[in-house]
Amino acid sequence: MKRQGLIAALPIKQITVLLAEDHAGFRKSLKLLIESDGDIEVIGEAKNGCEAVRLSMGLRPEAIIMDIAMPFLNGLEATRQILKAFPAAKVLILSAHPDPEYLQQAVIFGASGYLIKQSSTPALAEAVREVVKGNAYFCTSISKRLRNQCQKLFLKGNLLKRRTAHLALSDEASPHHEAFKEKYGRFNLSR
């Protein structure tokens, strides 16, 4: 009994989070949602991208939940600036925009995850925990899209590998093949 009381009295290491969302009511709801389990603490709130960059530099949160469509500086550019200056931060994009262009930019700029507001707010605390561990986190619809894109890229890569192997190993006489061999010599591109 005494041991259980001692364990219960030990403080839980809380994950620190900055919320960057321009709608105050939604920001308040997010805060209540992610703090409800007790292991996540919102240490700052930003209502625009500029404020998110400034607060992240001063507060150094472990995770930043970032909306894309914000005034003064959009969430994607804010993400790029934050991660350039503070690479240890984990940025989770929480957006109403499932657009592939936004997803691509978020990943290129270094975001650790991407969630769609309409479908993912219940999973937000789980997403924060995962990205702080160093994992990526994408909502189901985004994960399916990424899987399909990876499949296409892998198939293209295998096709390209077969074609280059054939080119490098064949003695077919074609003007392009001969010009390539003349300029670069014969070598094996397959591995």
Taking the alpha carbons of the first and last residues, their distance comes to 63 Å
CATH hierarchy class name of the largest domain: Alpha Beta
* Main pleated-sheet profile: 6 strands, parallel
Classify the helix fraction into a percent range.
Answer: 40-55%
Which stretches of 5+ consecutive residues score pLDDT under 50?
none
Rg over CA atoms: 23 Å
Strand order of the largest sheet: 2-1-3-4-5-6
Order of SSEs: HEHEHEHEHEHHEHH
Number of helical regions:
9
CATH architecture level-2 label of the largest domain: 3-Layer(aba) Sandwich
Average pLDDT: 79
Number of domains: 2
CATH superfamily of the largest domain: Response regulator
How many β strands by DSSP? 6
Write the CATH fold name of the largest domain.
Rossmann fold
Describe the structure.
The chain has a six-stranded parallel β-sheet with strand order 2-1-3-4-5-6, sandwiched between helices. It has two domains: 137 residues, Response regulator (Rossmann fold, 3-Layer(aba) Sandwich); 40 residues, no CATH class. The chain has nine helices and six strands. Helix 3 runs parallel beside helix 4. It is 54% helix and 15% strand. The termini are far apart. The relative contact order is 0.10.
